[in-house]
Amino acid sequence: MTSLFIPREPHLARLARFGLIGAVSTLIYAGLSWTLTTYGHAEAVKASLIAYTVSGIFSYLAQRRFTFRSSTGHSRAAPRFIVVTVLGVVIATLAPLLLTDRLHQSPLLAIAITCGLVPLANYLALDRLVFRPAPEAAGIDAAGLWRLATIAMFGLGAIMSAMRRTDVDVAWLLTLGEKMLDGQRAYVDFFEANPPMSILLYLPAVVLGRATPIPAEAWVNILTLTAIAASLVLCGRILAKAVPDRARLWALAATAAFVLTVLPTGVFTQREHIAVVAMLPFLVLTLARSEGETPSWLVAALAGLGCGVAMAIKPHFALAAGPPALIAALRRRSLKPIFATEIWAASAVVFAYAFLLLTAFKPFLAFMPAIREAYLPARRPLVQLLICPPIPIFLLLVLLTIDAGRRHLRSAWIPVGLMAAAAGGLASCLIQGKGWPYQAYPMLAFAALALAAAVVLGWRDAAASRLPPLVRISLIGSCAALSMGWSNVKGDYHQLNAPVAALVPHPRLLSISADIALGHPLTRELHGHWVGSVCSQWMTAGVLAQARAGHLSLARRTRLRQFVGLDRRILVNDILRGRPDIILVSVGGFDWGAWARADPALAAALAPYRPVRTVDGVAIWARS
């Protein structure tokens, strides 16, 4: 390690060049971000990600060539440059969060650290760790660097989870968990389009939120991060023999930490995200079995239990779990991988959940016709799904994986198996047909992990890729940025918080809308009380979507009208019994206020309410 401190050139000249490139990179980021938001009408998050990626690529190239005049290969310098950059972001984020917000120190201290120590540490890291010869030649512990990268990625993901708003679906499911703890009966006193596992998944966070001063929203993040750490540890145990090179093993851990904590962005803690975390050890285990590895009974059982939880969340995830198991059976030319311990453990969880449905959640089975008739058929056309951003991103990840692993495809059992799981994720996304960002996460996550495995397992093969290193790095960075941007596409009504709170500080709330995001997480952020039995008028919205698509028989239209009537009756009951202080009504596009007043009983229930303000297509009705 002493070679790290051998001077190569007077620092003053390099420091000046380093500062110049930093200033130019900042100008590129600011100018491109401003241009995209002002003239390209891009969302701020997307514009920032694109601008940061472009400025980061410029910074890397300029610092390598101009500042440090290094001949270090891109395959080694670029990943380390990314790690150093991420660490800088983590420190710059933690400084104000801990010193100013938590310890109540002067903001100047955090500013001094961010503007002084972070650039200096960044310079030293680039000089001594990034733009140098190979770790083996310089005496650098490559495994240690990747271990540090894993911690950095996990830390960055934890910070991001603490800073973002609670996801709309997660906020609603937490609310349902609270209703259950208050004694209300699922699918009797309140109604949800998803099976009970969606509610049960977040129930531990609700229980902990009531038992401790920490809110349920924070417990969801804590429990998810704990599950991610456990998943990574279990995967490491499984791969310890199959990947004896510690540097490669920690490189896989670092990329997995990025995919599980940073890449999800807006879908972090969503059901699909938790399912990927739970299923990953099972996938790795089945692929390790294809190489003849024999894990311990406990490791296999834990991996199988995680997969079972994922399939209980949504049966579609069997499409991701099945292909790797089949690959293992084909490679071993034996049926033993199909009947291994993890398969039995996963099956046990699924059967236990099915028994729970038949005994403790019989009302869900009675409510299934409404879900089957009104909710499930409301889907996007296949053509629209295929041109959604996640599909091109997925295809590009497939091509990059093939390019990275083409010279060792026969031995690339991890990339091939993970890409097979990603194909199952694609099938799941298309079957569900909603086109929502979180439904694409398993497909993108498994594909990204497959690409990472192909790159890491072949990183010493200089001819493994036909693409120039910079082109490959740019394409991979673009896939990551686009995936993160897509995951943030969702309804956001935070602008309603202030006007609603000004009317009633902790309101009893209800909405008349097709959009769940209208009332969630707004209700929880205002410490209000959701008096509704449903999150939105999803039954009516599904019927209207089917009517717009056309080709409905008279008998089917008659059946569907029953669910519109049910939606209205539920709404009338919620208004009369819950007596909301505020009702949020979508009036942009489809006028849900007119829809409500068209029904005599609903109009009578709404008689005491008057619109007091309209914000971005949402009318705020208050009780007079």
The count of helical stretches stands at 27
Biggest sheet descriptor: 5 strands, mixed
Query: What is the rounded distance between the termini?
Result: 74 Å
Calculate Rg over CA atoms: 26 Å
Strand content: under 5%
Large-scale geometry: globular
Structural class: mainly alpha
Low-confidence regions? 1-9, 135-139
Number of strands: 5
Overall mean pLDDT score? 86
What is the total domain count? 3
Order of strands, main sheet, comes to 2-1-3-5-4
Helix percent band: 55-70%
Folded structure, characterized:
The structure is a single chain. This protein is mainly α. It folds into 3 domains: 2-131 and 142-163, no CATH class; 168-487, no CATH class; 494-623. 68% of the residues lie in helices and 4% in strands. The chain contains 27 helices and 5 strands. It has a 5-stranded mixed sheet with strand order 2-1-3-5-4, with helices on both faces. It is globular.
Annotate the secondary structure layout.
Layout: H1 11-38, H2 44-67, H3 74-102, H4 107-130, H5 135-138, H6 142-163, H7 168-181, H8 197-200, H9 203-211, H10 216-239, H11 246-262, H12 271-290, H13 297-313, H14 318-332, H15 341-360, H16 362-375, H17 382-386, H18 390-405, H19 413-432, H20 437-457, H21 469-487, H22 497-503, E1 508-512, H23 522-525, E2 529-530, H24 538-549, H25 554-578, E3 582-586, H26 592-597, H27 600-605, E4 609-615, E5 618-623
Helix pairs in contact: 1-2, 2-21, 3-4, 3-6, 6-10, 6-11, 7-9, 9-10, 10-11, 10-12, 11-20, 12-13, 12-14, 12-19, 12-20, 13-15, 14-19, 16-24, 18-20, 18-21, 19-20, 20-21, 24-25
